[in-house]
Design a protein that fits this description.
The structure is a single chain. The chain contains 8 helices and no strands. The chain is mainly α and 187 residues long. It folds into 2 domains: 34 residues; 130 residues, Cytochrome c-like domain (Cytochrome Bc1 Complex, Chain D, domain 2, Orthogonal Bundle). Helix 2 packs across helix 6 and helix 3 packs across helix 7. The C terminus is likely disordered.
Length: 187
């Protein structure tokens, strides 16, 4: 067989395999075989693919973000209040469980006690600002200012160095005021 005919055959076989793969994927999608119920956990393969995709996407998109050098105590306190208002229901905190309904989400929202070990401040900022598709993690871009987002990151960074019961103590002792974006009580 001539070399050019062999090359044509290999190319045609490659195209046929790609077409067969695309048609198989289309048939799989249209068949409804894959169970999308949140009551069933992802398969290990699905979790691996989506988790790795998320991690690498966050790293890539956050690469140009420059985090502030240090946060003040006031910024950490304000970050606690933002976290208390918007985040603790899904993510919990040291000594504070997530709301029971968060357990019905798939994937379940992670506890953020070790988030600062997995992500840099810039990456955490990006996640809070943009959310994560198909996880229930919303984008807070339209609800929180950049300053408030950095305050949440400051809280997450500081909380890993605080005693575990700090969140519960602050929750009882601090007055965070009305939820951000809502008016205070009328007098």
């Amino acid at each position: 067989m001539e070399r050019s005919k062999l090359i044509q055959l290999v190319v045609l076989l490659g195209l046929a395999a790609a077409l067969a793969g695309a048609l198989g994927a289309f048939a799989f999608i249209k068949s409804g075989i894959y169970n999308v119920a949140a009551s069933k956990p992802h398969t290990k393969f699905t979790f691996y693919v989506t988790n790795e995709t998320m991690i690498h996407s966050v790293r890539r998109h956050a690469s140009g973000i420059v985090a502030p050098a240090d946060a003040s105590a006031a910024q950490v306190t304000r970050g606690f209040c933002v976290y208390e208002t918007h985040c603790v229901a899904c993510h919990g905190a040291a000594g504070v469980a997530r709301q029971p309904w968060a357990g019905g989400m798939e994937p379940q929202p992670p506890y953020l006690l070790d988030a600062t070990h997995k992500f840099t401040p810039a990456e955490l900022f990006w996640i809070v600002r943009n959310g994560i598709k198909m996880t229930g993690m919303p984008s807070w871009r339209d609800s929180l200012s950049e300053e408030q987002t950095w305050e949440v990151v400051a809280w997450l960074e500081a909380s890993r160095r605080l005693p575990p019961q700090t969140y519960v103590r602050w929750r009882k002792g601090l007055s965070c005021g009305p939820p951000i974006g809502l008016p205070g009580p009328s007098r």
